[in-house]
Fold this sequence. Notes:
Elements: H1 2-5, H2 9-22, H3 35-52, H4 60-79, E1 83-86, E2 89-92, E3 97-100, H5 113-124, E4 128-130, E5 134-135, E6 142-148, H6 153-156, E7 166-168, H7 170-178, H8 180-192
Parallel strand pairs: 3-7
Antiparallel strand pairs: 1-2, 3-6, 4-6, 5-6
Amino acid sequence: IADICSGDISNLLEVYRRIFEKGGVGKQTRETVPAHIQHAAIEAVSRDLCSLIKSYVPYGEQMYLVAFHFGTLSRRILREGCLQKKGNDLIPCETSRIEVDQPPEDTGEPLGDIQSALASELVRRAIFVEMELGRSRHKFTPSLRWQLRRIYCPTFGTSLAKNTAVKWNTSEFKYFLLNPEKACEEEFAKRWKDGNRGRQEPELPFGKGFPKTRDDRR
C-alpha cells in the first residue's frame, strides 16, 4: 500500500479508510481484513482518483485521456506484449514509465504552447511524476523521465514494478501529448506486440522429468 501511494499521506489514509469501511472494521475488530476486500478497496480508490482528473482546471479532460491511454498501454505491455530475456527465462515487460532521449527544449524541437501547458499540468498535478534526468541511451545527453503516478496503476491492472520503459524521441512524445490514443496504439503495435503471447503454454519447471529447455516443451 505504501508503494501504491508513493509517499502521499492523503492517499494512504484514504486507502486505509476505504479498507476499514469495506471490511467493517470497528473499535473491537481484531481480525485482519480479507485480502479480496483490501484489493477491492484499493482498486476503488484508484478508480475514483483517476476519474477525478477530469475535474481539474484547466485541461482536465485532456489529462485524463493522457493518463487513461498510457495506463492502458502499460497494461497491454504487461499482459499481451513481447517477453524479455532474464537469464535463462523469458519474463513479461513491466513499465509505467516514459523516457525521452532528450528534453524537447534541448533538441531544437520545443513543445508547442498547448503541449507545453499540458505537460506542465500533468507534472504539477502529479499525474506523472517527473524523475531526475537520466542519461540518453544513444548519446551522453540528459533524458526526460516520467513515471505514471502509482495510485493510478490498480485502475488499469498494471504493475508497480519496472524492468523497462516506453522510450520515445521528441517527436513521438509531442504526438503522444496531443493524440494519446493513437500514439499508444501505434507504440504497442510497433514495439511491443507479440503474436505468440496469447498461445503460450503454462510455465513448467525445468529439471529431471521435465523439458530441458523452453523449445523442448513443444
